[in-house]
Specification:
By secondary structure, the chain is mainly beta. It folds into two domains: 132 residues, Roll (SH3 type barrels), CATH 2.30.30.40; 93 residues. It contains four helices and 16 strands. The strands form three sheets. It has an eight-stranded antiparallel sheet. A six-stranded antiparallel sheet has the order 6-5-4-1-7-8. A two-stranded antiparallel sheet has the order 2-3. A hairpin with a 5-residue loop joins β13 and β14. The longest helix has 16 residues. It is elongated, with a radius of gyration of 26 Å. This is SH3b domain-containing protein. InterPro entries: SH3-like_bac-type. It comes from Roseibium aquae. Keywords: Signal.
Length: 233
């Protein structure tokens, strides 16, 4: 009776034959799912599940993320991402897991996941409009500068990543005064800091933070006087 490796190898060869007609527009390697595994809309368990690939099913692998932890694959009519640890391919005549050492040798290269991929494959799904709710979209940074009619300017940027959100900004008045501030919120609370500089060079700074147990704040005046306090909530 054939063993599991023989069965996997046979499946891989069969799938390869079916996909050979695809041409050379995009390099592809045939792999097999080693267990029931979710095909997701992005390289993270935070992304929606498109379909479950059954154990033993053949998939076409187009590339993997840096580090080869997630791979871009197609299964049936679906396109998405599968954890690389659930994929096997043929290497040196035997079936092996698609590891960082094996992947480049068998032709699986590093690919990038971005908004263009999302737009191309998922426009018909109900969650398509929630790009910024998932890791890659949430990490998008916005920035810009606004110039007022009298010549004053305001510059700012904001972004969100896996651990929270942050923003920074600077405003410059027509007389040369500036105001600079930043704020961030993470899983343990929020913090902010700011500095105001007058046209003559005087400055005032302040900082505050709030967490699960309350808030604290401090201000520094132009003469160096420090005023601080705590307010519990």
């Amino acid at each position: 009776m054939p063993n599991a490796r023989t069965i996997f190898a046979a499946i891989i060869l069969n799938v390869a034959a079916l996909t050979a007609w695809a041409g050379f527009a995009q390099a592809a390697v045939t792999s097999v799912a080693t267990a029931n595994v979710n095909l997701r809309a992005g390289p993270s368990t935070a992304y929606p599940v498109i379909v479950t690939v059954p154990a033993g099913a053949g998939v076409v692998t187009y590339g993997c993320t840096d580090g080869y932890t997630w791979c871009d694959v197609s299964y049936s009519t679906h396109r998405g991402w599968v954890a690389a640890s659930y994929l096997q391919t043929v290497y040196n005549g035997r079936t092996v897991v698609l590891t960082p050492a094996v992947a480049p040798v068998v032709g699986v290269t590093v690919v990038t996941y971005n908004r263009a991929y999302w737009d191309r494959y998922y426009a018909a799904y109900p969650w398509y409009g929630r790009w910024t709710a998932y890791p890659a979209g949430a990490a998008t940074v916005r920035s810009g500068t606004v110039v007022g009619p009298a010549g004053a300017t305001a510059t700012g940027s904001a972004g969100c990543g896996p651990y929270g959100c942050g923003r920074a900004g600077t405003a410059t008045g027509v007389n040369g005064g500036t105001a600079t501030g930043g704020a961030a919120c993470g899983r343990y609370g929020c913090g902010r800091a700011g500095t105001v500089t007058g046209p003559a060079g005087n400055t005032a700074s302040g900082a505050a933070r709030c967490g699960p147990h309350g808030c604290r704040g401090v201000a520094v005046g132009p003469d160096g006087t420090v005023m601080g306090g705590a307010r519990l909530r």
